[in-house]
Amino acid sequence: MVDQSIAGPVMASVSEGDRSGRARIVILLLCLGLAAAVFLSLTSGASDASAVNVIGGWLFGTVPGDAAVSARDSLIVYDIRLPRIILGMLVGAALAVSGAVMQGLFRNPLADPGLIGVSAGSSLGAVAVIVLGATILAPVTALLGTLALPLAAFCGGLATTLVLYQVATRRGQTSVATMLLAGIALAALAMALTGILIFMADDRQLRDLTFWQLGSLGGATWAKIASVGPIIVLALAAMPFLARGLNALALGEATAGHLGIPVQRLKYMAIVGVSAAVGASVAVSGGIGFVGIVVPHLLRLLIGPDNRYLLPASALLGASLLLLADAVARTIVAPAELPIGIVTAIAGAPFFLWILLRKRGVVDL
Amino acid sequence: MIEAKDVSVDIAGKPIVSGVDFHARPGEIAAIVGPNGSGKTTFLKALSGELAYTGHVALNGRDLSTMKPVEVAVHRAVLPQATTLSFPFTVREVVKLGLVGGRSGALPGEDARLPERALARVDLDGFAGRFYQELSGGEQQRVQLARVLCQVWAPVLDGKPRFLFLDEPVSSLDIKHQLIIMNIARDFARRGGGVVAILHDLNLTAMYAERIFVMHRGRLAATGSPRDVLSDDLIEKVFDCRLRVGVLPAGNMPFVLPQSAA
Description:
By secondary structure, chain A is mostly helical. Chain A is 74% helix and 1% strand.
């Protein structure tokens, strides 16, 4: 069994079919891309505030030009643009990674929190708190404070995912048709219940709700980041531990078990993680669709389906793309702004159709 | 050593396997044969910990039902009948999944080249960069075998034998590759491991197996060496087919047996 000739210097060479080297390079480039997207977002917006001057001021303590203008600029950059950028990165990363994890869990590249009703379930939870927070749910909101909204969204998403998984998976095999159809049914149910709540809402709540449902990063504040940031960061930090298990799961649940993966625990961790990340994202930014399907799909074409690289790469690309989409949303009709959900849907929906056209076989699995 | 006593499996209230006693020793290929629907695959799934069973299964002296998946994975690897893949993995990436449990038993530093070596053994040299989904059924089956070999690369680990569970490993293969795969199994057993294989080809079974377990309607119909078990009576009873063992075809009808392989 000892074969020294092979264990020698050959090991250093790149192996055919091994895409890990390429994946590392892509991840490095995505880091640079994210830095560029952050810079672009920081420096663009409805006002002419100069982020370069403001940052220069923070870094070097010098305030060039008019001190009053600089104070205003500083406020815009620090209290408006920066929280919005951080929230955008968190939400983009959460949605993209959640998409990749769900696709691994359901063993299908079409699974996406937005498409199969998880986001709708989260919305229901969030809307319930917004509308009923002052009346029926007052004790809950009093107890949980700012955490009530993300927690309600988490519970809504978790319930939807659990029901969906039970319905769509039989003996370790997930039927894609059942998954998509059950997702449609669950989303319809969640939206109907949400509709009842909206019906009960007063005028002030209505405008908020409408805008929020379309998806927006507009309400970003440091307080919101403080309430959902830890949830998203925790969920994202846990997901890389699922990567190897999700890779094995691509061979089927039984085979993953044979390889030594604790499949049940893996599935529950994935479902809870996705529900937390999606719930928290929906709670602060509403329905931003298609990030979870477009980002992992593009990356799989580039670096392959190995989740050890796919998950971090998805986080980086998801964060970058959402920042770019938000930059478009903020500037295209300035000084007004478009809900970002509209931007991601306009770009994402045709992309989704293109996937279906190219890989029609995937749906028939 | 694998010992199963009085193993039964019910699926949806129907008894599929009833009261099967079974053992597999290191150094041997134990073949499970029987007609379609006789419970062979279900029994193997119980043995691999995939299905709930009643009765007792011991894997190297430990009660299977108390072992964690990661512990079981150290002692045995399983080749299913067919494996579909949900994402476009390359052949090398699939084979490397065999190492996910981390106890191949190869020498330190050898793991990195293990996928290539395993692929060479199943006669798929140069396939590492191909996409799994683009291969033929027989090639996919051999890729999966390479993955399984990576998982238990050393047939003996920490002084204990390891086992290969093979569910119809040669069913979609041409005769050359049937022999290659069966020789891999024999080699694994000769180096101290054990093999449990579901086989349909009685000639291959007679040629390679040290011990045959014949299943019929969920029960064990016979067990023993090929010489003892493969009789006209048993084959007629189990397979419902009047075949004669060791009789040459009449006239000059050609026949080709794997035993004639040089």
